[in-house]
Amino acid sequence: MTDVIDIDDPTTDPFDVARAAAHALAEATGVARHDVALVLGSGWGGAADLLGETVAEVPSTELPGFSAAAVHGHVGTIRSVRIGDGDRHALVLGSRTHLYEGKGVRRVVHGMRTAAAAGASTVVLTNGCGGLNPAWAPGTPVLISDHINLTATSPVEGATFVDLTDLYSARLRAVAREVDATLDEGVYVQFRGPHYETPAEVRMAGRLGGDLVGMSTTLEAIAARQAGMEVLGISLVTNLAAGISEQPLSHGEVLEAGQAAGPRISALLAEVIRRL
Hints:
Rossmann fold, 24% strand, Nucleoside_phosphorylase_d, EC 2.4.2.1, Purine nucleoside phosphorylase, glycosyltransferase
């Protein structure tokens, strides 16, 4: 399916494209409403299999406004999953569009707006990231308590003022700790990428109050809040950030850490979703 409405046209309302995508999604999956949305970042892909029965799986490019997956380790499909034995459904976004791909902010946050248009009131955003705390070994999940957006952009267009005071829900973090009381939390700092941060930039992030560094999530979280969704963010520390460790950074290291931690974090996320 090609875009019915061009999301890249500045005269187009991106929420119209989201509504068109949600309508196409309902037709393709046979599910009229999805209750919760998940964005599965590096290392988190196995969680969808533990949630329940996959009702339908749709290539993301068949829905208006979505782009093909551009990062190794991300899956370019959208799944509708029945949560447990109940009548709730999760919308699982297996890939995200990153800002560094150069496709524009609207495409970066289109999944959030589509999920809200499909009925989701809650979204769980996951990612793989670098950690500033040496105690967080690769494979450690960390709840996001707040963020610092260093992308120099926003998904909010025009004179629309969105309060981000409690963007990352304390209620949802408490639910996550009911599942795993050992979960720590920290402030996530998004850089534009795709290059990794320099040691000096990592030191800057720490002095600004950051604990985690990565290349995603903050713009999606802002768009989710604008759309009225409650947000839970969870990062998987896949490596120590530049300068914290003497080891050079590589995407292969990110994938390897994600694979090693996969069973634990997938079970954690699936149980959190069941309790929401």
